[in-house]
Design a protein that fits this description.
By secondary structure, this protein is mostly helical. It is built from 5 helices and 2 strands. It has a two-stranded parallel sheet with strand order 1-2. Keywords: DNA-binding.
């Protein structure tokens, strides 16, 4: 954990910081997969049936998507949605939510 996160966790709590980091990892996975598929945010939004602004806010880390939204996005990206309680993501072929 970086120095900033250590200091911030003393203020907000370690659980809060871990949740922020996990949300950031999920957002990065979505953006990376979308870009790998050469898909625009609008194209992903259309396929997932959500507004483009939702995709933008998720990728920017401004919102925490509901599980329903994550499922729609994973289907649109044709990648599995995996809820995994471990920190080892193996081959990293899916969108991971760490509990």
């Amino acid at each position: 954990m970086g120095d900033f996160y250590k200091r911030y966790s003393k203020i907000r709590g370690e659980d809060h910081v871990q949740n922020l980091q996990q949300e950031g990892q999920i957002a990065a996975q979505i953006k990376t997969k979308r870009q790998k598929l050469k898909m625009s945010q609008q194209e992903l939004a259309d396929l997932a049936g959500v507004p483009k602004s939702t995709i933008g806010r998720i990728e920017a880390g401004l919102t925490s998507p509901k599980v329903e939204t994550l499922l729609k996005i994973s289907k649109a990206l044709e990648t599995p949605f995996i809820i995994d309680g471990t920190s080892d993501k193996g081959d990293n072929q899916g969108l991971f939510v760490q509990l």
